[in-house]
Amino acid sequence: MRRLKERGAIVRPILTEGGAKFVTPLAVGAIAGERVFTDLFDLAEENDVGHIRLARDTDLVLVAPATAYLLAKMANGLADDLASAALLATDRPVLVAPAMNPRMWANAATRRNVERLRQDGVRFVGPNEGTMAERGESGLGRMAEPLEIAAAVEALLAPAGSLKGRRVLITSGPTHEPIDPVRVIANRSSGRQGHAIAAAAARAGAEVVLVSGPVSLPDPEGVTTLHVETAREMLAAVEGALPADIAVFAAAVADWRVAEASAEKVKKGKGGPPALTFVENPDILATIAKRVDNRPQLVIGFAAETTNVIENAREKLTRKGCDLVVANDVSPATGIMGGDRNEVSLVTASGVESWDSLPKEDVAERLIDRLSGMLR
Ligand code: C5P
Asked: What is the Cα–Cα distance from 74 to 97, expressed in whole angstroms?
């Protein structure tokens, strides 16, 4: 409540009966600086359908902490107290910050409830990994940190124009590393996710520079697009585009290039196929993330993996020095590479948040919301 008030919000608390076992209405009211609504006091006011007014006369409803029980009630439309009645009556965005024992979070019933709530448009922040109130227990179930919750609230309330005055730099697509004038080493990246992020950043009001490898997509509207072929060209274009507030490295950069590309077309010959010698390409993400001067405030990497997705993303986060890694499974069976949809997990130092499969445009939109919240 304090973090929200510092950001200019008016916080009107509803304290459940369970909540009142942890904190008194008096303490909650003092922190909020507003009247506290509880079941006990408000029965009289229900004549005037107080829960409907409470539910509508607000910009957003935040449930923090959200217990497994409350999620179950929400998923099933149960309204047996003031909080659940207000949640059922609201037509405003609902954000929940779950907090429960890791086994309760992992339980099939909770998974079903969360999935159903997501489909109903309810937004989630956390839970994070960490130690629990119960002695010796740890795992996924800790409530998101107050600052994360405040950032998620801000991002939900101000998605449009939230990056006004900010510079966002994005890499997208594959790189092509020449073997000779007609042949290249390439990969299957379509550039769809990176281009969608550039478009979403532009819609949010940012000044966007997109450094794109060879793709068959049109340049996004309202974005300065620089076209490059190789990893080294991409690095030079990125460095030339600094400074930036946010840098998102969505390109699938070739890890290696042919040591000495032939100036002439390599001919079929008696010697059999040519032996190619490779050298390592610069790591653009790591180079920018580790800069001392002009490091963007937020550096975002992608981790496209076919195995141990989260583990690999965590490792990348620390090794490359970025602030957030968007991890996804690009096994051929997922159809993500080149497809319309993406299923990602956001990995930061404070935990992992997994999103359902979404159109790449929606992933882009939500990522930009999230980044603008983190920036603030
Ligand atoms: O190590 P890996 O290639 O899986 O890391 C992926 C992340 O690093 C992506 O964000 C990608 O854009 C970035 N990257 C880069 N330059 C490279 C290799 C990867 O910027 N040479």
From this structure: 13
